[in-house]
Automatic annotation (TrEMBL):
SUPFAM superfamilies per record: UDP-Glycosyltransferase/glycogen phosphorylase
Ligase recorded as keyword: no
Transmembrane helix found in the keyword field: yes
Alphabetical list of Gene3D superfamilies matching this protein: Glycogen Phosphorylase B
Originating organism: Aedes aegypti (Yellowfever mosquito)
Protein name: AAEL005138-PA
Family: Belongs to the UDP-glycosyltransferase family.
Pfam families associated with the record: UDPGT
Length: 509
């Protein structure tokens, strides 16, 4: 009997060992080409975890080179430098935020086309494209927010399984590659800054904008992208079609900060994946915070629209408000004080980098002045910190609006910012207990998960590795279904025509 048990356990050990070799140790190519440092940081959290659990991960990206924590980083040389050189001055994100929604979509598409053109010309990408045909890649993970340009590598590796993964939270971004539905009747377009609930005319505009966005991508943006790649590599595959091979999408959503957007089962929501366990603060920051008798306020406008690129009139209003609130200590993420038009007051401390996640976890923080970037917004909610939003462009308006509706802060216009308004709003959020109470309640809800977002993402990726070959059970019919059929607009149109025909006959009788 004992020998039978040993044999059974030996068989199970062999089987589980074989399964482990299938799941662990896979060769994964991660493509992260969004021209935004924060998006790369989100991806970094995911691909480093994949390496930790035993996978061989190679990352094609715009920011880092070398081997870091077992991950092979291939930087597309000079893409960011070339992008910067094409700008006359620091890009004015405040001015960019004043574009109408149609112009903003076009601007993002133009940026993605620039990145594509620079990336496929880079030495790193050329070398990877030309010399990797005998390499074994088990899975490709692609940040689809950058567009499908670099999926030109898919045929090189004999079309491995594809997963989309993005630091963005809008499910509608998977509409074209995966066929997910859009709901413009009650969900504002990601670049449409509008109060909710939307009025009838707002909904009309939103429907037009959302449909125009899909048509613009399908018939203007994608053809330009396909032409760029075909000219460079003479491929028969269109990269816009290659993106539709995706089996799964992993999105930075599901954090109670989004609209209740219906989705399909192959969209995995892992909002807050990037949030790490907190670490002790550096000694210099501990000294500053210990001396802050009434707590401190953190001010950060993110990695793109930096504080030092703001107009001097805006900076003067911000500094004036900080000076008036001299009993509060301010930590301001600022690349350089040389850009400031006036001297900083004694209660303001600046640095090009702060351990933001660790500061938000500190019990003495009173408030987070935020631009509304999704990652920072999620960190604020995770730690239960009230906010004052100064949204600048794109989805930042919607992110801040969601927090305002949930009662965890207030919003100001950075374009028309006045110090007296800033002082009143800061004082209100700091001293009204309701903002903190609502923030803590939202934090408890966000933390109440059966598994962590990171573990959920890794499990989903490994599920694809285990089951990608069973293609006959994958239902990708939504991808091939036309826009009109998917939303039953053709059926509605048919009924309208029938009713009009009946009405015409009745009128003639």
């Amino acid at each position: 009997m004992e020998s039978k048990v040993v044999v059974i356990f030996s068989i199970w050990a062999v089987l589980f060992g074989q399964l482990a070799t299938i799941v662990r140790g896979a060769n994964i190519l991660y493509i992260s080409s969004v021209a935004s440092p924060s998006h790369f940081l989100w991806s970094q959290r995911l691909f480093e975890r994949l390496a930790e659990v035993g996978h061989n991960v190679t990352v094609v990206n715009l920011y880092k080179e070398g081997v870091v924590r077992g991950v092979h980083l291939l930087k597309l040389d000079d893409v960011i430098a070339d992008l910067d050189s094409k700008e006359d001055d620091e890009e004015d994100y405040v001015e960019f935020g004043q574009l109408n929604p149609f112009e903003m979509h076009v601007s993002f598409a133009e940026l993605e086309l620039q990145v594509c053109e620079l990336a496929i010309r880079s030495t790193t990408f050329r070398r990877l494209f030309d010399n990797s045909r005998n390499s074994q890649i088990d899975l490709v993970i692609h940040d689809h927010l950058a567009g499908p340009c670099l999926l030109a590598l898919m045929p090189v590796f004999n079309y491995p399984p594809l997963i989309l993964a993005s630091a963005y939270n809008r499910i509608s971004t998977t509409s074209l590659p995966m066929g997910t539905l859009i709901f413009p009747g009650f969900i504002p377009n990601q670049v449409y800054d509008i109060d909710e609930p939307m009025s009838f005319f707002n909904r009309c505009f939103n429907v037009v904008l959302s449909c125009w966005e899909i048509l613009f991508k399908e018939f203007v943006y994608y053809p330009k992208l396909d032409k760029l790649v075909k000219t460079a590599f003479n491929q028969s595959d269109r990269v816009s079609d290659l993106e539709k091979r995706a089996l799964l999408a992993i999105l930075n959503s599901g954090t109670l900060l989004e609209h209740p957007e219906p989705t399909t089962k192959n969209v995995i929501q892992v909002g807050g994946l990037h949030i790490k366990p907190t670490k002790p603060l550096p000694t210099d920051l501990i000294k500053i915070i210990d001396s802050a008798s009434e707590g401190f306020v953190l001010l950060s406008l993110g990695t793109n629209a930096r504080s030092d690129s703001l107009d001097s009139t805006i900076l003067i209003e911000i500094i004036s408000a900080m000076n008036a609130l001299s009993n509060i200590t301010f930590l301001w993420k600022l690349d350089s004080e040389n850009c400031l038009p006036v001297k900083l007051p004694h209660n303001v401390f600046t640095s090009a980098w702060f351990p933001q996640n660790d500061l938000l976890a500190h019990p003495k923080i009173r408030l987070f002045i935020i631009h509304g970037g999704l990652l920072s917004t999620q960190e604020a909610v995770w730690h239960g910190v009230p906010i004052v939003g100064l949204p600048i462009y794109a989805d930042q308006f919607g992110n801040v609006n969601q927090l305002i509706r949930k009662g965890v802060g207030r919003r100001l216009s950075i374009v028309n910012l006045k110090s007296h308004q800033f002082i009143e709003v800061l004082d209100d959020v700091i001293h009204s207990e309701s903002y903190k109470e609502n923030a803590m309640q939202l934090s408890r809800l966000l933390r109440d998960r059966k598994v962590t977002s990171l573990d959920d993402a890794v499990w989903s990726i490994e599920w694809v590795l285990r089951n990608a070959n069973t293609s006959h059970v994958w239902n990708q019919s939504l991808v091939n279904l036309g826009f009109l059929q998917k939303h039953s607009y053709d059926v509605v149109a048919a009924f309208v025509c029938i009713l009009m025909l009946i009405a015409s006959i009745l009128l003639l009788v």
